[in-house]
Amino acid sequence: MITILACINLDQASKMAAQHFLQNQALLTYFGGIFNLVYAENTGAMLSLGSELHATARFGIFVLGVGLALASALVY
Q1: Partners of 37 in the β-ladder
Q2: What are the CA-CA distances from residue 74 to residues 53, 64, 67, 68 (Å)?
Q3: Mind listing the pLDDT tens digit for each residue in 25-47?
């Protein structure tokens, strides 16, 4: 349980740090172009799945649909 909470906290901290330090920056290049940092947001799910959908459709599918599927599985 501690490991899961630590992973969640580190994930959120890294996202906040990226947003704070990289959001309004140009491409940052290190080690002669081997390592690049750039700010990007994924508006969809994993691998940008659904990122082309309207925000209402994404909410319906990824929040309501997945929530209903999980609730159904729990009841089953």
Answers
A1: 28
A2: 28, 15, 10, 10
A3: 899 999 998 999 999 988 878 77
